[in-house]
Amino acid sequence: TAPLSPEGQRLNCSLLRTASGMTSPMDLSVVVPLYNEEESLPQLVDQLLAALRPTGEIFELVLVNDGSTDSTAKVLEQLSIKTPELVGVLLRKNYGQTAAMSAGFDISQGKVIVCLDGDLQNDPADIPLLLEKLNEGYDLVSGWRHQRQDAALQRKLPSKIANRLIGRFSGVKLHDYGCSLKAYRKEILSDMRLYGELHRFLPALAFIEGARITEVKVHHRARQYGSSKYGIDRTFRVLMDLFTVWFMKRFLTRPMYFFGFGGLVAMSGSLLTGMYLLAIKLMGEDIGNRPLLTMAVVLGLTGVQLFCFGLLGELLMRTYHESQGRPIYRIRATLRGGGTS
Ligand code: UDP
Ligand code: MG
After folding, report:
1. Which intervals hold domain Glycosyltransferase 2-like (predicted)?
2. Does any ligand 1 atom lie closer than 6 A to the CB of residue 97?
3. Which of 46, 66, 144, 190 has its CB surrounded by the most CB atoms within 10 Å?
4. Predicted ipTM beyond 0.90
5. Of the ligands numbered here, which is closest to the C-alpha atom of 34?
């Protein structure tokens, strides 16, 4: 059972205030990153419209062409002419799934954002399920492909291991981090800065920011057209990102808590050793060149250095926060229900 959020009661109350204080008439934005999905695209739009029009929600379909080398952009343009709900975003080149999703999130106007893949592996008919769950008072609802239609050895096994690891490191235990079909409250995404492969860790990152997270079982279909854009190098990149997320969660928010503590311990050790040596000296003994003296000096220096590490880390954190204006994608054109802008 979830706590009720102030906004969680109804989605189709269409003039709710957003976090920024603006009134937004848009209930829902569906974001789809597209890289060479020309064959899937028309069916995808059909299925999304079929799933969403009957709900009565005010929605937009934000379809992001991530520099496809096939005719995805052309198909998108044609579809946008006859689909008033469609917002097409054409990126200048292929920036990767995370950047494409970010572009979609940034342009979205909905109070709720649903993201899914453009290859028809996710079923748009599941979207109302996610929205229903979100309305119970959650900030993020993740799909769980309980009968995943992908190769067992190459895809499902690494995912199983990854899900365990991410759950352990991040503190959010989900069965299926890799499922792209997810629903988010806009506020959760608005201050999220994604890069690399970080879209995979959105639940973990949102959790760090205090989001309430849950999952619902969704359908999963085998890829009909085109091919998966990922190979084995993804496993490595995901692993490195996992480490980054873990690091951010543990240390990066307050580096001083980590390094500063180590510094204090080392400096105390140095002080105690020094005091011991001083006491011996005062009792009239010659200290000479004892190992203990060396230890006191080394500990002292280490302590000071660790402490400075912590301070530097804090400075880095500030720079990190302040430098977030840098875009990870660039838009060539935007298509809105009928024309180019
Ligand atoms: N995608 C993208 N940019 C890329 C690679 C993929 O926008 O550089 C999109 C792709 O079109 C699809 C989604 O990201 O909508 C997931 O890609 P894919 O289906 O290849 O991944 P898989 O399902 O094999 O994990
Ligand atoms: Mg896929």
Report:
1. 29-191
2. yes
3. 66
4. yes
5. 1
